[in-house]
Amino acid sequence: xxxxxxxxxxxxxxxxxxxxxxxxxxxxxxxxxxxxxxxxxxxxxxxxxxxxxxxxxxxxxxxxxxxxxxxxxxxxxxxxxxxxxxxxxxxxxxxxxxxxxxxxxxxxxxxxxxxxxxxxxxxxxxxxxxxxxxxxxxxxxxxxxxxxxxxxxxxxxxxxxxxxxxxxxxxxxxxxxxxxxxxxxxxxxxxxxxxxxxxxxxxxxxxxxxxxxxxx
Length: 216
Known about the structure:
Layout: H1 2-48, E1 52-56, H2 58-65, E2 72-74, H3 80-83, H4 87-93, E3 97-101, H5 114-132, E4 137-141, H6 148-153, H7 160-174, E5 177-179, H8 182-187, H9 201-211
Parallel strand pairs: 1-2, 1-3, 3-4, 4-5
């Protein structure tokens, strides 16, 4: 009787191990498929945006940091004023499309009216790009939102919506495109990194999905 019970226990253990191995195998296969799909998607975007350049601050820099795109001119601490110095480099790349995303650092600029100061330089930036790249299509991207915790830590981020309205008006005046990126965050609310300001890799694939029609 003891031998029968022991044999039954061993059989049940082996069956459980077999099921566990099958589940682990299926999970591993799923992860491999997801990784392959992500790699294929990244390769597709690199091809799709091969004639584009993204100009901006550390938010934009995330495109290259996460390996999504290579043709990125993003710098930590960049502002519209500082970006004026990069136009010759941008022109040397001769892009067909220029996507600009600046403002996160402009809002923190130590001046009496950072919005007006920034937008004045932003207008100069757009004008200089037009002069150097008259055939390029220019798109201004809205400043990305921050989390409630980040806004509490830095109250000046409360001005993001007002600044974005200024960008929208600037784009209309300069006759360039304007894209509001906020719908991305409504559909995918968990895209911020731990600091509540910068973004996880997923944000950038969602951004390119939003922009892909502009480069077709």
